[in-house]
Amino acid sequence: MEDRRRQSLLLDFYGELLTDKQRGCYDLHVNEDLSLSEIAEQLGISRQGVWDNIRRAEKTLTEIEEKTGLMGRFEETRTALDRLGAGLDKLSGLTEGEAKALASELAGELRALRDRG
Question: How many alpha carbons fall within 13 Å on the CB side of residue 37?
Fold first, then answer.
């Protein structure tokens, strides 16, 4: 997964578990793409303070994801749903025998996805 996207998703999933200052610095750096100097000026703290908050936030978010795996399961589910959607699109253009086989396969994937959750 692209690093910026991963960082943004981590913030979306677990950002409320950070301190306000960590969340603010991390959000401005990741989502607004501001430099350390720009963030420091905007928040009225030193560049080192910004850097420390970003590093602590990244460490905290990564540790939480390693323990919970919530974001990883979300991505797996999203990928599976994309694959199932593509299969259903294909299903609409197949003959009756091919359609039945594909429908059975997709139904099995949906059951497996449901059972994992």
Answer: 0
Query: 10 near 71, Cβ under 8 Å?
Result: yes
Q: Which CATH architecture has domain 3-68?
A: Orthogonal Bundle (1.10)
Q: Domain map of the chain by residue range? A: 3-68, 73-116
* Alpha-carbon separation of residue 19 from 23, 89, 103, 109 (angstroms): 6, 45, 48, 40
- Cα–Cα distance, 28 to 12 (Å, whole number): 13
pLDDT digits (tens, 9 = 90+) for 13-52: 999 999 999 999 999 999 999 999 999 999 999 999 999 9
Considering the entire predicted model, what is its pTM? 0.73
